[in-house]
Amino acid sequence: MSKLLKSYFYWTYQRGSFHYDILVTLILVFIFVTPHLWDYGDKPSSPMGIQHPIQVVGDDEHEFIVTVAAADVPLDLHTTASKQAVKKALRKAVEPVTGDAVFVDDWQTVVGADGNPAWKVWAHR
Fold first, then answer.
1. Among 92, 16, 3, which Cα is nearest to 54's?
2. What is the pLDDT of residues 37-71, one digit of tens each?
3. Do residues 74 and 105 make contact, with C-beta atoms less than 8 angstroms apart?
4. Dist. CA 23–CA 112, nearest whole Å
5. Is the Cβ–Cβ distance between 122 and 65 less than 8 Å?
6. How many of the other CB atoms lie within 10 Å of CB of 64?
7. What's the per-residue H, E or C state across 51-113?
8. Which helix (H) or strand (E) holds 5?
9. What pLDDT does 61 receive?
10. Where are the domains of the chain?
């Protein structure tokens, strides 16, 4: 048994043999099955909640200036939500285009390109 395990570990079998095919099958099972069983920490970048286009530009001081439609942020523009709640909601809204590691520096309400209210968010990584 020890010799068998050692030969699998050092991959000593010839290509096309039964044991070689087993090794290749185990590798393929590992590649295709583990993403369903194991959380690798990555997320698809599909903006599920975003219904309107997001405009992203940059300037010298901030890495990103993101314009997000007000309808895509789960906050009313006229509420008295805390600064932290607004920052958290805006960060969540810009994540699909900027990635997870983004920090919201500042924001203001503006009129978007379509004439509807929007948030203008200054952020960096």
1. 92
2. 887 777 655 555 555 566 677 666 657 788 888 77
3. no
4. 57
5. yes
6. 21
7. CCCCEEECCCCCCEEEEEEHHHCCCCCCCCCCHHHHHHHHHHHHHHHHCCCCEEEEEEEEECC
8. helix 2-9
9. 61
10. 2-37, 55-124
Cβ neighbors of 86 (< 8 A, separation 6 or more) are: 75, 107
Residue 113 CA to its chain's centroid (Å): 26
Instruction: Note the pLDDT of residue 87.
Output: 84
| Among the listed residues 79, 82, 80, 67, the one whose alpha carbon sits nearest the alpha carbon of residue 122 | 67
- Look at strands 64-69 and 117-124 and give their pairing: antiparallel
Q: Treating both helix axes as pointing N-terminal to C-terminal, what angle do 2-9 and 18-37 enclose, rounded to 10 degrees?
A: 70
Q: For residue 16, count other CB atoms closer than 10 A to its CB.
A: 7
45 is written with which tokens?
């970048």
pLDDT band at 3 (very low <50, low <70, confident <90, very high): confident
Q: Which of 122, 50, 109, 46 is nearest to 77 (CA)?
A: 109
Determine contact, residues 79/89, Cβ cutoff 8 Å.
no
